[in-house]
Design goal:
Layout (H helix, E strand, L loop, with lengths): L1 H7 L5 E3 L8 H9 L4 E4 L5 H14 L4 E6 L8 H17 L19 H10 L3 E5 L5 H9 L3 E6 L2 H9 L4 E5 L5 E2 L14 H11 L4 E4 L5 H9 L4 E4 L1 H4 L8 H7 L7 E4 L7 E4 L2 H8 L9 H15 L22 H12 L2
């Protein structure tokens, strides 16, 4: 554990999950200043937006931080599939006196082919870089390592962890099925064993020779302590930080997280096109009723965002991407730095 913490430049074995669209530079800076590793998700950002986010963190903190990139397989446009999906969603749009998009776009560029993002990272040299949904090419990994960055990558099973180790990544984020947000599984169409955080963590600790970071359902110091007892070098928490005032979660998302809705999470493809754990809402219910498959990620997300915008404009907040893990009922609303302090005290028992 100490070796990884030293390499990351942090005092506490606590990493705030990147959570693209929810985390902020302010949150990351507060967490890092408090002794953990703050993170931002830049997978949904352009290179210039990401550069600005990095600048905001550096203006607020001298401490190390993590930037997270999406390495998904680039989407394949399938006109027939996309048309069928828009037809399925049309009655939902109509209920809000809105029209679905005429066509769907691939709204995010995967890092595996985003040369502008790569150039920005080489120029800005963030201290920690992490990958989700897979790995970039060996030459990109080598170039980032040459900047001095510590590299992390998500695994949901042993085979993915072994691929991460073979690629020369420094540590593995073991994402259990309890985790909120998108599954990091490399192949979303492959078999998903659905391993829980504690089982996956222990399997990886016994299988690979690089540090393992446990994530999924960990909400308090007792959960962090349990992960460390199983051999994890650190724990990554996401849902625990959503209610912090520094997050971008809107009022409806916060209210759902702090209410009874927190007790009901489901894994859905309907919102974005990839499996992701969300608070149960009207969109997840639609996905459960659907008899067709959504378009590829992130093409489907173009429709999902448009439907949420139409619903919100009509005063309905039940179509949002309210990502949350199964530990959501344990969420606490406090500043990110205060939460880090509480977690540290709880870890000590």
């Amino acid at each position: 554990m100490k070796a990884l913490l030293s390499r990351l430049g942090i005092a506490l074995p606590i990493i705030q999950a990147p959570m693209a669209g929810t985390s902020t530079p302010a949150m990351a800076a507060e967490v890092s200043n408090a002794g953990g590793l703050g993170s931002i998700g830049i997978g949904a950002a352009t290179a210039e937006q990401a550069r600005a986010m990095i600048g905001e963190i550096r203006a607020a903190s001298p401490r190390p931080f993590n930037v997270n990139l999406f390495c998904h397989r680039p989407a394949k446009a399938r006109a027939e599939c996309e048309s069928a999906w828009l037809s399925l969603l049309a009655p939902e749009f109509a209920a809000f006196a809105a029209q679905p998009p005429r066509r769907l776009r691939e709204i995010y560029t995967s890092f595996v082919e985003d040369d502008a993002m790569m150039a920005m990272l080489l120029a800005e040299r963030p201290p920690v870089v992490s990958f989700h949904f897979g790995l970039p090419s060996p030459d990109r990994i080598a170039a980032l390592r040459a900047t001095g960055a510590t590299l992390l990558a998500t695994a949901t099973n042993v085979a993915e962890a072994q691929a991460i180790e073979a690629a020369g990544i420094d540590a593995i984020v073991a994402q259990g099925h309890e985790a909120g947000g998108h599954r990091g599984i490399f192949d979303p169409d492959g078999d998903d064993a659905g391993l829980g955080t504690m089982v996956l963590t222990r399997l990886l600790v016994k299988t690979v020779n690089i540090p393992v970071i446990a994530t999924g359902g960990i909400m308090d110091g007792a959960g962090i302590r349990a992960a460390l007892a199983l051999g994890a070098a650190a724990a990554q928490l996401g849902t625990a930080f959503i209610a912090c005032p520094e997050s971008q979660a809107d009022a409806a998302y916060r209210a759902a997280l702090m209410g009874d809705a927190a007790r009901h999470t489901v894994m859905t493809r309907a919102i974005s096109g990839r499996p992701a754990r969300c608070l149960a809402n009207s969109f997840t219910a639609l996905g459960e009723r659907a008899d067709i498959r959504p378009p590829d990620y992130p093409i489907a997300y173009d429709a999902g965002k448009a439907l949420n915008a139409a619903a919100k404009a009509a005063g309905n907040s039940s179509y949002g991407a309210q990502w949350a893990g199964q530990g959501a009922p344990l969420a606490r609303a406090m500043r990110a730095a205060a939460l880090i302090a509480v977690l540290a005290r709880e870890m000590d028992g």
